[in-house]
Amino acid sequence: METRANYVLIGAFTLAVFAAAFGFVLWFQSLHTTKQRSPIRIVFEGPASGLRNGGSVNFNGIRIGEVVSVKLDNPRRVVALAMVENNAPIRKDTLVGLEFQGLTGVAAISLKGGEEAAAPVPLDEDGVPVLTADPNALQDVTEAIRATLQNVNRIVADNQESVKNSLRNLETFTGALARNSEKIDNVMLRVDGVMGKADSLMLGLNTIAGGAAGGELNLMVKSIRELAEDFDKRSGALMADGRRTLSDISRAVNNFDRNPSRVIFGGSSNAAPAEPAPAATAPPRQAPTAAAPPRGQKKQ
């Protein structure tokens, strides 16, 4: 029992440590987030078209926060609560307005300028800093939108005849398509037939290029390679024979140049050339001998 109680105490202590660590992380994160951003209230003396929850708060074009809530304070006053970064250089003389992403985009609160030595933003009754939007800035945005729409209207008015002609040409083109719908269908059917033939051709090429037996094209390439190798071998032997024949012809030509008579009349190729015979000389003179006795006499 005592051992089991120790296990229970150890497990409870471990769970308590994990819970304390998790709570500390949450508390530190919330504290860090609270220190990162702080609320600010923006008052619009007039309409704030396009402003909604989640809209951006930009200071000189850089996002520093977002809109948390938008509500009507009275029929002519709109109040927006935003969370902005604490290090944003917002001052009492900072200009507040609205900026849009295109003509139909969501509006964002625009903060601009302000002197570095100016006083901080004044606090409201509940301790939240409050800034009032510049009516002239809102009027400038409205006038810019109105001017843009006027420019679009002027462009359309100046090119009214061209727009009419374009619409008339489009109507003529659609009418021609409607009148020739059957021909277009026939053309499309022919195109489908051509595409079907192309598919069949591609399948045939695929079958030739490769198949279960390796493909006819592969066999053809292999046969051409074998033929080329055999031709290479035969041409090598033929060239060797040709070299030997040319060597023999060259040797025969050289022999003919050295001894044409031997080549014409024949003879050993190794026999030395005949030397000229020496001049005939008189036989040496012999001493006189005794005459032979007549037949029947004895020699004395």
Describe this protein's structure.
The protein has 300 residues and is an alpha/beta fold. Among the domains are: 33-147, no CATH class; 182-244, no CATH class. The protein has six helices and seven strands. The chain has helices at residues 2-36, 135-158, 160-179, 181-209, 216-258, 260-265, and strands spanning 37-44, 56-59, 62-74, 77-85, 95-100, 107-112, 130-132. Strands 5-6-2-3-4-1-7 form a seven-stranded mixed β-sheet. A hairpin with a 6-residue loop joins strand 5 and strand 6. The protein is elongated, with a radius of gyration of 60 Å. Residues 269-284, 286-294 and 296-300 have low confidence and may be disordered.
